[in-house]
Design goal:
mainly beta, 8-stranded antiparallel beta sheet, globular
Length: 103
C-alpha cells in the first residue's frame, strides 16, 4: 500500500492538455498528462461529440502556449449522454457526447 501522502498528492495533480481535436468522424480526441509524470500520456476519445461552446485567448489555437494547464474538467449526465466542460489557461470547451473511451 502506498503512503498516505503519496496517495493524497496523486489525487491533486496538475494536468496539462497537450491536444484537443474534433476528428472527421465527429469524435473529440484529447490527450493530457500530469505535470509530475509527463511520460504518462492519457488519451481519450469522446464518441459522437457535439461542440456547444468554444473560446480561446487567440483566434489561432496553434498560437496558444501548448501544453495548456487544466484548471477544471467536469462531467454531467444529460439524458443518455454527458456534457463535458474543460477549462484551461486561455482555452475553454464545452461539448456533449457519449462517455469517453481511453485509447
Amino acid at each position: 500500500m502506498k503512503k498516505l501522502t503519496e496517495f493524497a498528492l496523486e489525487q491533486h495533480r496538475v494536468y496539462m492538455l497537450r491536444e484537443f481535436q474534433l476528428d472527421a468522424e465527429g469524435n473529440i480526441v484529447c490527450s493530457a498528462y500530469a505535470a509530475s509524470k509527463p511520460q504518462t500520456i492519457i488519451t481519450a476519445r469522446f464518441p459522437r461529440a457535439a461542440l456547444k461552446t468554444a473560446w480561446q485567448e487567440t483566434e489561432d489555437v496553434s498560437k496558444l502556449a501548448w501544453p495548456l494547464e487544466v484548471i477544471s474538467f467536469q462531467a454531467a449526465r444529460v439524458g443518455k449522454r454527458f456534457r463535458f466542460t474543460l477549462t484551461c489557461i486561455d482555452f475553454h470547451r464545452e461539448w456533449e457526447s457519449e462517455w469517453p473511451q481511453l485509447l
